[in-house]
Amino acid sequence: MYEVLFALMLIFSVAAVFLLLAAQWDLPVIPFYLLAGIFVGVVIDETQLLDLAQWGVAFLVFLFGVHVDLEFVRSTGRLSVAVSVLQAAVVGGLGFGAGLALGLDAINASYLGITAALSSSLVATSYLDTTAGVRPTYARLAESVHFTEDVLGVLAVLTLSAVVYAATPAWEQFAVAAGIVALALLIRYTVFHRLTARLRGDSEILMLVGISFVVGFIALAEAAALSIVVGAFAAGIAVADDYPHSLELVDTVDDLEDFFSPIFFVTLGALLTLPGLETAGYTLTLLVAILVLNPVLAAALFVRAGFDGRTAVLTALTLDQVSIFSLFIAIEALGAEQIARPVFDAIVLAAVVSMLVATYTGRHAESIAQWLRDRGFARALGESVTSHSSVADDLSDHVIVVDLEYGGRELVERAADSKWGQAHPFLVIEDDPSVLGELESICDNYVYGDVSNDDVWEQARLSDAALVVALTPRPARADAVVALETDIPRLVRVDAIEDAAEFADRGATGVIYPDAIAAERVGDDLAALLAEELSLEEFEARARQRTRE
Amino acid sequence: MSLGGIALATDFALLIVAAAVLSYVARLTGQPTIVAYILTGVVVGPIGLGIVGEDQLIEILSELGLGFLLFLLGIEMRFDDIREIMRPVGMIAVGQAVLQAVASTAVALALGFTLFQSLMLALATTFGATPIIVKVLGDKGDLKTLYGKADVGILIFQDIYLVLALAILAVGTVDDTAEIATSIGRVLILMVAIGLVAYAASKYVLPSLLRASAANKSTLFTVGIAWAFVFIFAAEALELSVELGAFIAGLSLAQLPYSTELKERMRPATNFFIAVFFASIALQMERGQLLAYWQEALLACAALLVINFGIVFGLFYSQRFDIETSFLGTISMLQVSEFSVVLGALAVNEGFVEEGILGFLSLMALVTMPISTYYVRYNREIFDRVEPFLSRFEREDTITVDPVEHDDHAVLVGYSRFTAELAEVLTDADTADVTDVVVIEDGAAYVDELSAAEYAFIFGNARHGEIRQEANIGGATVLVSVADRTDVNRRLIEETADTDTLSIILATDEEDAQALRDAGADYVVAETKLVGTELATLLELLDDREAFEERMASVTARARSEGVRADGGECDGEGDSGRADGGEDNGKVNSGRAGDGGADDDRTAGGEDSDRRGEGETDV
């Protein structure tokens, strides 16, 4: 007991110190857990914690499974799936080849290949946190790419546990795994709601039910000699992430995961040994593949698929870190004694480095994209502005709206019905291909492209326009509008007082601060209600009038 | 190390599944989960099916469970909540501890136990069962009544008593009295030392430490756990009780604004581990040990109910509580607590008593806890029956207390420009519907500002039931939410459904807005839609250049100023006509709102999908 308590105390204390540093610089937590592990590993015997650590794996994968949104997968379409499969196949193949060239056997080379190919949802856009809100195009795109790669990760784990760790390769394991997932789906759609209906409001028992799902499916997986990752994933599929379970079951398991996943990551870091030359070589190979090859390839594929250069680059920049599933594979392979020690070390090291770099590139994605554009990168990849645009030849005195969402849609719709709208035709600049269809149906003039691209503005006939309105909450896009060198009046949305001052000083004709507008309008209604100028019914009706009239 | 192969401990897995099944059954029959957990060990352990034995993982988690439970108990120690009735409640608690110990010893002796066993039993059976009292009274909405508060107060005193008992038990068996004295002396000195360290930390270190870690949800949690572990380990290393270390660690966090959020984040792990703890108790027991004293246990249960009723009722009455409060407060406390089992288990581990005594205590808990849920639940019905007999004791000049919870208040979920301005409207209005504003916000950036503001401030996320309860959402006059999770908003609306709370919600998009309207919210606007509509109105002036610029200037001026509201509400004219550059006019800054600074200032534009609302959680 003493040893375990000592190990836990050390793990959490060192992790706490590292996390405080991470919080100071606003950095992601996972690489800091791994770093903490390297320190802790000097003192403790981490193998005694593997029992606890794998609960971290189980809960992480379970929650990934819970958050799998089948509707979402269907709606994002095949395009991003195709791109990510292609990218993973190419880079994975290259990684595998490089491993062989470096003298590894096929199994170890395939670990390198998998690690090079897959990136993680947990560090980048983190769709584990799909709260409603602002989701720029590239983030949605990145989500579906990451989702595809995570599924590939589950498949990789499955393949390895069926073929490599098993005494004799057993391809029928795939059928068994499919059966387990099918069972999970069956439970989700037939049993789950009936089972939980009576537990409403009791998160303590719901949590136990959730854990029992994990335990039960992992037991099934283990009985079939499959990885616990497969079982935990199936358990997640069996749980519906809808109201009120999202609050009572999913959130509580989420809190539980916060206890176990540090143990997993710190243990993983503690397993690292002092890197030798061989490890350094593999790490370098992986980093080249992850930090350079993956983004460039993905960006090229996205541009080829018709996305604008900026969206392509921003999406690609979310792919530059090691997947969580590669870490699972590494630790499972280590447990099964099927991985060369230097390869294991290289995977963990590459994870630490790439996750930190990914944070940097994620944070400066916009300026990196701009830097690349200035050097003709997008053009080199074959970006075209005209292919998805429609602009009337005699368009003038028009209102240019940046982005259909965030209020643009309402604006365009209302303009179509009004007198002033007839006098001033609307043109929409949009970079989200998923709304192109809608765009075509509601408005005659639109340009598909990136606002930081001058060609787009030329296409939109900026010099003949009457007004530019940017309701986008994305600072970089609003910024590009403010930075335009033109006398045409521009209205820009802001979400903070300082931005309001800054944009106004830099030449925006007006700034729109939605929170302030909402506060004003709702405040008026509320004041009228309190002063008894409005009845409660009238007050409630006002909310609808505010958005419908 | 076999992560590739069979990895999960089977014993542990079975235990969890059994606990889930039994607690499901418990829920259906209205029983507390603790009973289900203890029964789990009985059913799957050697007494019942014999399919689960003790293993290392179970041992680690149950030890952690006890530690975390005491940690949470420490965090919950907020004397503010019972300050008004501290004195009478303290008298009852002390009186009860003494009188009940005497009575229990006498009963145990009469049942044929040795003096030492009887003293141990007396020590262990003094507690009321927190999970039952808090759970059942909470479900009935009675926790804030006078008798509920008195019971909670007594439980707090009993916690202190429990911690002392744990500390003494941890000394272990020693032979001569001199050694006992030195051991207890050493324990007390070290306890005081740890307590002083904790106190100093809570004054000088913890506020800034937690302030720094509140920026990220994982960080706050990890720092909290690390804090607990440091004390747990220190206690273990000094050969003190682990539970004591955990309790002191929690106590040092209790008075800080982050305590509720931290507690709620740790609760799932604690619930999980504590389930393992209670389930594991019976794992070490043979059938013979559980039933060794079954007749005595049943007799003791009957005696306990009768004698303790007399003692506690008398004490309540002597402290000038009225008859009804005394009666209701008393019958809630009539059961053997889970802590009796905890103390019994520790006493067995330390070699004070044999397993049979633990079996006796477990049996008493298993009998009294389920029964007591019924008489606690139907306490008023029972009181109505017995009132005729008790009414002659009724007297004047009894204790009354004013409710300390928020009342006639507005709750703001999420602090933003929007909620801050609406708070001004609510408090400025002469109608005075709202006497009090409570802000729930988990953005670390707002802590200083909100702590200094005139509003009551709860640090935390509204997704936790405890946070919503602390804000008394159900009793609010007005609810304003900018929470960005629709499920949280739905829960908020549900909790205000029974009352005539006015709910105003700013939704992200129209789909969410419609869902919330359907769920019964009064006033929902989708912000994007509102802005689009507003702008369309603005653009109608596009051909009237002068009017357009004037309007635009006023919108801009408003955007640039800190939450401004003109009296009477119409703000449009404020930006002074013709001032198109919007340069120097910041409008009238309302001085009514304290610490204007950070309402929106702390937003960093970190990537495009930066968190728009304060209420949101920080991404991993």
TrEMBL record, chain A:
The chain crosses the membrane at residues 6-23, 30-46, 52-70, 82-104, 110-130, 151-168, 174-192, 213-239, 259-277, 284-305, 311-331, 343-362. Residues 15-361 form the Cation/H+ exchanger transmembrane domain. Its main location: membrane. It is a multi-pass membrane protein. Residues 408-514 form the RCK N-terminal domain. It is found in: Membrane. One of its GO terms (biological process) is potassium ion transport. Gene3D superfamilies: 1.20.1530.20, NAD(P)-binding Rossmann-like Domain. Keywords: Membrane, Transmembrane, Transmembrane helix, Transport. It comes from the Archaea. The keyword Phosphoprotein does not apply. SUPFAM superfamilies: NAD(P)-binding Rossmann-fold domains. One of its GO terms (molecular function) is antiporter activity. One of its GO terms (cellular component) is membrane. Belongs to the monovalent cation:proton antiporter 2 (CPA2) transporter (TC 2.A.37) family. This is Sodium/hydrogen exchanger. It comes from Natrialba chahannaoensis JCM 10990.
Automatic annotation (TrEMBL), chain B:
Residues 17-372 form the Cation/H+ exchanger transmembrane domain. It is found in: Membrane. It is a multi-pass membrane protein. SUPFAM superfamilies: NAD(P)-binding Rossmann-fold domains. Residues 411-525 form the RCK N-terminal domain. The chain crosses the membrane at residues 6-26, 33-52, 58-77, 89-113, 119-138, 150-172, 184-206, 218-234, 240-256, 268-285, 297-318, 325-345, 357-376. Residues 559-568, 576-587, 600-620 have a biased composition (Basic and acidic residues). GO terms for biological process: potassium ion transport; proton transmembrane transport. One of its GO terms (cellular component) is membrane. Gene3D superfamilies: 1.20.1530.20, NAD(P)-binding Rossmann-like Domain. Residues 556-620 are annotated as: Disordered. Keywords: Membrane, Transmembrane, Transmembrane helix, Transport. GO terms for molecular function: antiporter activity. InterPro entries: Cation/H_exchanger_TM (IPR006153), Na+/solute_symporter_sf (IPR038770), NAD(P)-bd_dom_sf (IPR036291), RCK_N (IPR003148). PANTHER family: CONSERVED INTEGRAL MEMBRANE TRANSPORT PROTEIN-RELATED, SODIUM/HYDROGEN EXCHANGER FAMILY/TRKA DOMAIN PROTEIN. Belongs to the monovalent cation:proton antiporter 2 (CPA2) transporter (TC 2.A.37) family. This is Sodium/hydrogen exchanger. It comes from Natrialba chahannaoensis JCM 10990.
